[in-house]
């Protein structure tokens, strides 16, 4: 598990290999990830948007921006956490993701970024 703390918000990431399949006559590798966002601070915060950089060893970097996470903009109270799972398709068995969440401190209305550390995707058969 990979973890990182930014401004009292702890991000923990766990990854998994989900399998392979053909799509548009190409092999694809499916990876899953579960992220826990834990508020270790004193103020309630809300996640408003996300920014991802996806690295596929056979393709160029892909950048994705979007509102919230999996259709939600969670409010996370002090001492509480929000966990969600999502996935990523790559054209190679090795890759990585990193990014950040845009957050708002609901007490002060300050906007800030919480960084998600680089987490790697490796199909078990790709490593010797």
TrEMBL record:
Top-level taxon in the UniProt lineage = Bacteria
One short Pfam name that applies is DUF525
- PROSITE patterns linked: APAG
A GO BP entry is:
error-free translesion synthesis
Please list the residue ranges annotated as the ApaG domain.
3-128
Known InterPro entries for this protein?
ApaG_domain, ApaG_sf
Protein known as = Co2+/Mg2+ efflux protein ApaG
Which source organism does the UniProt entry give?
Cerina litoralis
The UniProt gene name for this protein comes to: apaG
